[in-house]
Structures are given as C-alpha cells and as structure tokens.
Amino acid sequence: MVYSILFSHMESKRLSKALAAAGIASRRACEEIIFAGRVKVNGQVIKVPQTQVDWQADRIHVDEVLVTAEQKKVYYMLNKPAGYLCTNMRPGKKPIVLDLFPDSERLFTVGRLDKDTTGLLLVTNDGHFANEVIHPSSNIIKEYLVKTLQEIEGHHLETLAEGARVDNKWVKPVSVTKVRRGNFKICVKEGKKHEVRIIAERAKLKIVELTRIRIGGLVLAQLPVGEYRTLSKQDRDCILSAQ
After folding, report:
1. What is the tens place of the pLDDT at every residue in 153-210?
2. Residue 12, domain CATH
3. What's the CATH number where 89 sits?
C-alpha cells in the first residue's frame, strides 16, 4: 500500500503527527513507517518522527507516490468475525478485516483483536482519533464477554480479579462479573496483547469464545457479525468521554 500527501496548512508539526492526521495510519504505525525509511521530505529520506515539517513549503512522500489532497475522515464500528486478521499487510491468502470494506485503501483498525476474537472493532483513516483511543493516558475501558469451557466459580472470579503478568507488567482488570453458567464479563484498560486470554489462563479457564462488547461508552449492541456502521460525532465523543 502506498501513500503520499501534499499539504497546504501553514503550521509546522511533527512528521509522525502530520502523517497520522492525514490518515496514513495511527501515530505509532506512522513512526514505524518513518523508521523503515519509507518517508521522504523534499526528496530526502527522513527516519526521525520528531522532524518538523511545514506544509507551506515541504512535500512529503510515502513510498514514492504523491497525493495532492487530504482524504475525508471516516469512522466505522465493525462486529468482527472470527478468523479475520487486524492488519493492512496480508499474510499469504488469509482474510483481513479490511476485506469487509468495499473501499479500504486508506483504512486501518484502531488497535487489534486477535484472529479468534470477535466483536467491537473501530476502523478509520484518522490517525489522531486512533491515537486518542489506544493511548494509555486516555484510560478507555474495553469490556469483553467471555465464554469458558468450565463453570465459573468463586475462586475463578477471585483469581481473575487479581490479574496476571503481561509483557513483564502485572495488569489487573477494572472489574470481573459472572453473567451465567460458563460466562463472565471482564473490563480492562491496559490494552495489552492477549491480556484477557492470559488473565483467564492464569485462572485455569479455557476460553471457548471471546467477544469485545464495549469501548468506552460505545456498545456493540445488535450489530450483526461481519457488518459495520458509520460512527457519528456523538458516538466518537461517547468513546472518548466515558471513563
């Protein structure tokens, strides 16, 4: 996938921030693109995300292709099916989330759900919005519904509430609640990779189904699996304002 942007804004800003605002990817992903040497400013490869750029005078190229207009920002919520990967780079012939969108050239997922996890996933071309949602300082709660092979007992809930070590850091859920036989809900803030699965494994629970049902104040509700809808400004505010 290739991009390039020509801006007419007067202000100077960090290269990574500017690329994110243009919808190239999240700010973190834009930094990776810069580190990889895929970005040129006025014909020179730039590998420092903090480089200041002035869109009145500078031209930015990503992968050598020039685009002269900033894309309109779009925001979607998707009920992700199992089996789809959250990536823009297709590994072999495996299905990716963007296959579910007819015009997905500039879209990317906000964070990731692993291949077997289903449920609420945000898809956009707005890097600033994505960064706001996934940055730890936003403290946005993600809620999951977990179906397990075992019946949920009191000692399971106690161990789940203690959390687990994920990526060399001990993380604890915000809350854990039994829903019905073999089902519980868990709310987390950290957003670590496989966090819920690792916490469940420590409690000696085998996960059968894992579905994200809420991000901030935005709930999955009755959106069918594999379907998506546009997020309104109110929806986006709901995500970012709910703590």
Report:
1. 999 999 999 999 999 899 999 999 999 989 999 999 987 889 999 999 999 999 999 9
2. 3.10.290.10
3. 3.30.70.580
C-alpha gyration radius of the chain: 20
CA distance 161 to 155: 10
Q: Are residues 154 and 207 in the same domain?
A: yes
Which residue range(s) make up the domain with 148? 141-215
Residues 204 and 223 in one domain: no
Burial bucket for residue 144 (CB in 10 Å: 0-12, 13-18, 19+): buried
**What pTM was estimated for this model as a whole?**
0.76
Tell me which of 12, 37, 62 is where a domain ends.
62
- Give the active site residue among 63, 99, 114, 167: 114
> Residue written as tokens 């059968």?
208
Whether 223 and 132 share a structural domain: yes
Residue 131 burial (10 A CB sphere; 0-12, 13-18, 19+): buried
b/e burial code for range 162-195 (CB count within 10 A of at least 16 → b): ebbebeeeebebeebebeeebbbbbebbbbbeeb
Would you call 114 a catalytic residue per the annotation? yes
Which CATH number goes with the domain that contains 174? 3.30.70.1560
Averaged pLDDT score across all residues of the chain: 88
When divided into structural domains, the chain yields a total of: 3
Q: Quick: pLDDT tens for 41-94.
A: 889 998 999 999 876 677 888 888 654 446 788 999 999 999 999 988 888 889
CA distance 228 to 50: 35
Question: Which residues are CB-contacts of 41 (< 8 A; sequence separation ≥ 6)?
Answer: 15, 51, 53, 58, 59, 60, 61
